[in-house]
Amino acid sequence: MSTVVILQPSYLPWLGFFDQMKRADHFVLYDDVQYDKHGWRNRNRIKMDGRAHWVTVPVLHRGRAHQLIRDVEIDHARTWWKKQLKSLRQCYAKSHGIDYYYPKLESVLTVRWRYLIDLNSALIDLIREWLNIDTPIYRSSELGIKGARTERLISICKAFNATHYLSGDAAKVYLKEAAFEAFGIQVSWHHYEHPIYPQQGAHFVPYLSVIDLLMNVGDKAQAHFECVSSVEKPERSLRGA
Q1: In terms of Cα–Cα distance, which of 199, 235, 214 is closest to 52?
Q2: How many helices (H) and strands (E) does the chain have?
Q3: Helix, strand, or coil here: 85?
Q4: Partner residues linked to 34 by β-bridges
Q5: What is this structure's pTM?
Q6: Which of 73, 69, 15 is nearest to 205 (CA)?
Q7: pLDDT tens-digit readout, 183-209
Q8: How far is Cα 87 from Cα 48, in angstroms, rounded to an integer?
């Protein structure tokens, strides 16, 4: 059995992103599809003053409509990273993980990255190391595989001799499972029931960047991260069992 996960790269991703990575034998960053301007590619949320607070990497987009994720450049006209590091310090100054995680985040954020994909990749590599995930990561732009949406996903799976494709359940509305089955690839759906972990403030705020978990619980992060995910498999297997 070999499982492939294909996800667009996010900035400081949430817990579910890394749970899918942990369950994969091969994890592909889908970086040569169109950049979604108001998505998660260049922003995420941390908790500030009891509420979710956006942290955003400014990017160059004027006159660059329909650019691919891999081609998006960071806008260095402003020292955005200084503001973000200040926010992290302010939000998590009294947290268990600030002394360990903050310096390492600072070392990545202060690099003058040209492309957003390189910054995101560096952060993803750093965080998966903290969570003890050793799944190999690839970029779709480096695989040389073309095709339309479902056809291309199947081709990527075939390139890794995958028997399973693990997808977020939001894709149920458009993913053509039968097309995967025709090539002997079983589609499974990933559900992530968000854990409630010790968090600063009176009310728990879910679906933040994984940074919130790491900062709040320190070296206990992995135990909280792994406790409540599930995978739904189709009722009918490929072999009819």
Answers
A1: 199
A2: 8, 8
A3: helix
A4: 68
A5: 0.92
A6: 15
A7: 999 999 998 888 999 998 889 999 999
A8: 8
